[in-house]
Request: fold
Amino acid sequence: MTPRTLVQKILATHGADRPLEPGDEVTISVDQSLIHDGTGVTVGLHLESMNVDRVRPRVAVCYVDHQLVQIGTESNNDHRYLESVSARFGLRYSRAGNGICHQVHLERFAVPGDVLVGGDSHTPMGGGMGMLSIGVGSLDTAVALATGRYVLSVPRTIRITLEGRLAPWVSAKDVVLEVLRRLTVKGGVGAILEYGGPGVATLSVPERGTIANMAVEFGATTAIFPSDERTREFLAAQGRAADYRPLEADPGARYDQEIVIDLGSLVPLVAKPPSPDAVVPVSEVEGTPIQQVAIGSCTNSSYRDLMTVASVLKGRRIAPSIDVVVAPGSRQVLQMLARNGGLADLLDAGVRLLESGCGPCPGMGQVPASGSVSLRTFNRNFAGRCGSHEVSVYLASPETAVASALEGVIRDPRRLGEAPRISVPQAFFVDDSHITPPPADGRGVPLVRGDSIKPLPVTRPVAETLTGEVLIKLPDNINTDDISPSGARLMPLRSNIPALSEYTFRAFDPTFAARAKAAGGGIVVAGANYGQGSSRESAALQTLHLGIRAVIAKGFARIHRTNLINFAVAPLVFADEAGYEAVAQGDRLRIDGFADALREGRETVVVTNETRGTTFPVRLAFTPRERAVLVAGGLRAHLASAA
Reply:
């Protein structure tokens, strides 16, 4: 038999048992799914309209972890609705305070060799357990829950071979920052990152989870590690030894690209604002004054991460000039810190303890002061994501964060002397009482929908002739925070798309929503990697609500591109740089025979710029299924027509 990659092995056991090439579409079975309160309300609304009795994946969990700052009734309305949705359709319900979805899922549910489809962009964290974990939008999540199936556009596979062992004070976060430095935020688009090599055995499952978590920051579909003795060790400590199975790539398996990293050569790294790939050695920015350190997020809030911080702070005090906050990734981590004295060490050092949740990562509290610098162990430092565009955010490891917290400036942790040694406990504290199982039959459960939860916008088929004004022209690397801002005030509005739409592109043009409505909709023009970052479907739904019929860009991030297609907003690609340069805000564009071009499978169409009297080509880079979805008026309409 031809040697197979780890990804090929998992796909073969989930319905893709034929030879596949990158770009092929294949329907695979889904073992697990997760949603959370930041994106899950739209999942629930989709499920309501699908006449679903019971979700199909073997494991399905709804987590409350994003909207913990309940400054109004909207968040609690969402939580009550999601609790009723979980009981009605058969999902487990992880209550507020139980922890961040990805951290808890890794601890309590992840299984090597399973396929997980989750309504969050950092779902790839499950790859640290040897699970094929893919983040998608809310509608794709709802379809996976309803059918137990997911349509995958087969990515190319990049092998990342790890050799050697990390030096003291260098950690998993430095590994993934090094990969980002090499690949950039666009280098993983259309790819899966498959880690292997002898260095993998030196990394624990939580460390692997940190690396896999940030796959989306490359634009990658996901990342995955083999399942080995370290995996068995972690599962046994969680009381889940029966879930273990060994899984690795065959010797001689072929990859589309390979990167080799000598772990022993790495140094502490930091990502400078405003992008996760602006990576340099900590030594290059050492001495930069900081006003805040935030430790946590799904990327770096494990027991290993926080015990490292607690061990360094034991008997020390943080610098009096800064604010240091720590958010444990799960109730399990918090309980273990409380029981072994680590929590007392954190508090004695002057750290502020936050609830076990996402917290400052999506701007839910702890917004730094204007003009200040925040050092965070998070996964993104996009401008404005912290809640303010007037703040500079650096990303680093817990080791670098705690070293910097002691002095009030960015500091290389290697200056601290001997590094603490934190090992995986032989037994984790296990208490699943905050995860409510669904009733055996939920058909009689009433859905509790507060008045802040509004119906979703209605889609319509693509136009035969596509016309519209260019409402805005944007640069490269526009992220979903730019399109649909987050934060404590706005995240609760994700269940109210008309209200949230008023903030679309607010940081670029506060008049955008009003202009879009006055024009009756139009077209958005953008550079490369449009829609990078979060899976939030609100970015596509706001676009739909404001009447945008197409986005023409140099290129798209995977999840947002799919979300646009799912709601019949056409993502078109400039055929060359000249097309992008030849368009300006205010120009009126026209594509004749657009729907026919999709039906006929044409690869390009000509766009007429009526304002300038010029033309330029754009690519229709769609699969046959995607063309059918657009012509039908979105994924829901397409599924209904095929039923």
In short: The radius of gyration is 24 Å. DSSP finds 22 helices and 26 strands in the chain. Residues 629 and 638 are 5 Å apart (CA to CA).
